[in-house]
Amino acid sequence: MGIGSFAHLEHSKCLTTPTELFDIAIVGVPFDTAVSYRPGARFGPRAIRQASSRQTSFRGFNPRANINPYQNWAKIIDCGDIPVIPVDNAVALRQMTEAFTELGSRAPLSPLLQKPRLITLGGDHSLALPALRALKTIYGKPLRVLHFDAHLDTWHPAKYPNSWPSDQAHFNHGSMFWLAGNEGLLVNDTSRPSVHAGLRTRLSGTSWGDFDDDTAQNWLRVVADDIDDLGTAGVVKTILDAIPADDPVYLSVDIDVLDPAFAPGTGTPEPGGWTTRELIRILRGIEGLNVVGADVVEVSPAYQGRGEETALAAAQVVYEILSSVVKRGMLEMGKEGGAELGQEVKDEL
Ligand SMILES: *[C@@H]1O[C@H](CO)[C@@H](O)[C@H](O)[C@H]1NC(C)=O
């Protein structure tokens, strides 16, 4: 079985090896002290790596994407975990921000990329805040987010039950996009919204106020039930109509977007979600997007079944994201086969 790196990729302790260069890095963040319900996502990176052990570069061709992301132009490595302290979230937030910024600022190996791409294994969802802070520093401009989740995560921190206002309480896994918006990390232009997909959360109080707050923060919503009316193709079209393929986007996948039947191993499960196959299909449909960073978060393996279904789904999502990033790179490179693939991507769009 070998050492437990993601998909048996070459492993480097990148943070203590500044000379290590890559195009795409898998980075674990074993952090879960900003959660509101069940803890345990600190063990997510290890579980996802273990569940990826049947992924190899040898048998890595993705028939849905017509590409083997592990045998192509990109050097993909597993950078190990960012060290995060579990008893002081202010320090943990700094640790994550500095690590994402340093790794994401390195020179990529391929001349194709302006900057390398980080794909983060969570960890709880609050890590999207330091990831977005780093991307703002690296690219010097705000980004949009494509967010797969049962929940909004744009909640004002004071909307939590039993909340006492404090800086630390504000940094939690349901408010990080509210914080990111307030910090100017997200595009704030109604013609260029960020997008949620897979929502089915209950809302505060007696009406739609949470949705109104979300709209005011420049988010567009695809709810879980939309898939019954639109199908996966319609969900894809809604996303692509909102986010053009050239706009840089941060792709954030909370595994609780899946129904608890498919992903019970998570901190805040919500019945009535998408199947793993539907999510894969949607991810394939959006493969042309310009993903500059991504995370797969909220895998809390203590609550998953013995068959590791939740971590397996997360490892598959990582594989699909890798396939898309590598495929888009091929297209841009005009490499052999890239032109045809490019046409295919355009036809699909
Ligand atoms: C975003 O734009 C809206 C409308 O112009 C404005 O009311 C709001 O304050 C802006 N938010 C931020 C964080 O700049």
TrEMBL record:
Keywords: Hydrolase, Manganese, Metal-binding
GO MF terms held by the record: agmatinase activity; metal ion binding
Note on cofactor: Binds 2 manganese ions per subunit.
Entry superkingdom: Eukaryota
GO biological process terms held by the UniProt record: putrescine biosynthetic process from arginine, via agmatine
PROSITE patterns named in the record: ARGINASE_1 (PS01053), ARGINASE_2 (PS51409)
InterPro entries: Ureohydrolase, Ureohydrolase_dom_sf, Ureohydrolase_Mn_BS
Signal peptide: none
Entry cofactors: Mn(2+)
Binding site residues for Mn(2+): H125, D149, H151, D153, D254, D256
Listed Pfam families: Arginase
The keyword Metal-binding is annotated on this UniProt entry: yes
Family: Belongs to the arginase family. Agmatinase subfamily.
Protein name according to UniProt: Agmatinase
Organism annotation: Coniella lustricola
Taxonomic lineage from the root: Eukaryota, Fungi, Dikarya, Ascomycota, Pezizomycotina
